[in-house]
Every structure is written in structure tokens, then in C-alpha cells.
User: Fold YcxB-like C-terminal domain-containing protein from Massilia glaciei.
Amino acid sequence: MAPPAQTSLVPAQNAVLEADGSLNFTVRYALPEYVSFMWQHGRYIIRRRRMGRLATYAMLAVSTSFAALNFVTQRRARRTYEFTFDEHGIVRACKGGVSLVKWDDVKAIRTYSRGFMVILKQGTLPIPYRCLSREQAAVMAGFASSLHTPAGSADHALI
Assistant:
């Protein structure tokens, strides 16, 4: 899988990249926003299982509740995460430490009503639109298309 940094970007998008070619932004999650991401992503995953309507909503409610509980217990609302996307992968840094995700570990980047969801081999990274400028969102959409993944459904605009 080619790293997204090799995607040709239009000049307006290059203006949002740092001198070293990286895309940098910070994220501080809010519980309602995080729950919305998890609900929408859960719908995507569960829909592929073709279960009945009642079972689907029960499973969605349980999985989203556990995601909300995890959010609260890990105190994610109190942390500010600094993200860097570059040719090597994704770096997420906060007071708790730094994690590096290589592009080979990124399965997809999907779009939802509140932002992008970076789907990893193990886990996800929600990226809210409110933390990105229009130009940065366009670069993220370029990353998604360079991974040859569905960039979400047609009913979700980028911004």
C-alpha cells in the first residue's frame, strides 16, 4: 500500500502541509461527538452482518454504550491529542505518550457526519471536521482515496 503522502495534491492543499510535507492538527474529543462516531461506525460494521432490525439496534446500543464507558474511564475528554500525518504514517501524541501507526496498519479512512474515521488493523482514530480546516479536510480526503478505500457514503459531505 503506497503512503498517502505520495498522492499528488493541488497547490491549495499543499498550502496546509508543513515544510516537511506533514499534516498537523490537534483534537480534543467531546463525549457526544465520540458517541456519534462510534454509533455511525457501528452501523457500518453491523450492517455487513445482515441481522434483523431489532438485533441491529440492540447490538448498536450495547457497543456504543461500551464505547462511551471506555471514553469516560480513559478520561479522553481531558486529553488533547496532537496528530501528524506524514509519509511514514500517523503519529498521535498526548501527555500519556506517543503512538506511531504505519500506513500498512491503516485499513481505510471513512467519512461520517462528524468527520473522518481512520480504521486501523486494531482500533480506530476518529478525526472531527471541527479540528480541520477545509484544506486539511481535502488533504484527508486525498489520503482516503489514495488508500483505495470507500470514502464514506454519498449522504455525508466533507464539510
